[in-house]
Amino acid sequence: MAEVKELRDGYGRRLNYLRISVTDRCNYRCLYCMPSEGVKCLSHAEILRYEDIKFLCRVFRGLGVEKFRFTGGEPLVRRGLVSFMKELREEMPDVKMAMTTNASLLGSCARELAEARIDSLNVSLDTLDAEKFAKVTRVGSIDAVFEGISAAKAAGIKNIKLNAVLIRGFNDGEVPALLSFARREGLLLRLIEFMPLQESIWKKDAFIVGRDLLAALPEGAAWEKSGRCGGSDGPAEYYVNRKTGDKIGIIAAVSNHFCKSCNRLRVSAEGKLRTCLFNPQETPLKEVIRRRDERLLREVIVAAAAEKPRCWDVVNNGDIKMSGIGG
Predict the structure, then answer these.
(1) Interhelix angle for 50-62 vs 294-306, to 10°?
(2) Which among 81, 184, 251, 320 would be 20 to 30 A from 277, CA to CA?
(3) pTM of the entire predicted model
């Protein structure tokens, strides 16, 4: 097999962004994610060890991947993650490292994350209402999230995005408040369409199409499109308010899907490669990773990447549990 220096799928898309779930566990029990008693968790023996993940990152780096995002579950519930990221940074100073978190545990590790020179943090926060937050997370306190965000800013982490999934009847009236909060805290707000991941949770009546999210912004006519970030960045379309200078991102993953420019792959906590969030087909990597067979692992990844589906709607089966794949 000829040496492959960059990953491309069968449609010519370059795949340079890998999302790695480091745990399927979470300290929240969000209504739209899992039952109140939680779900059966993987054992420690089943999930990838840090040395496994580091080997995996080396191989993907050799295949041209430029960005690693660490997800969960909630990634910060896994002990040692920040120390691991510092080690990875020392070995790979030129990659982008990012994390998606609920920020509830960020307060105690923000300084270490800054020392690891993390490039960006995505904080998932769908409501600013303390009662609604407690209700939807079942166990969470919004004050812990605010403290986590403050700690990250104080530690010098610059690129913090606030991700809010807009759900009709739940938080669709909070866009002005979310925008004000983001402006005050110096965060970049991104509004995300409610995706049909699980049929038991997703409701058509609760779905708000991206163009309606945009139309609902305060001073709607003042928002102008400023494009999409390129390279290994995410799928948001960005808009700037020409009066205030505020910036906002819209992720219309359902109504205006970005499959034609999708550059991402995912690896679950147990080491299964998924080429599309909606594709139930997974390629197990753990055994090959633990054999430390770099040549074989490269071949398996390249072959799986080539089969990345053209678009999510041709593979969606409406039964995706995000805690196991990575948010």
Answers:
(1) 70
(2) 81
(3) 0.90
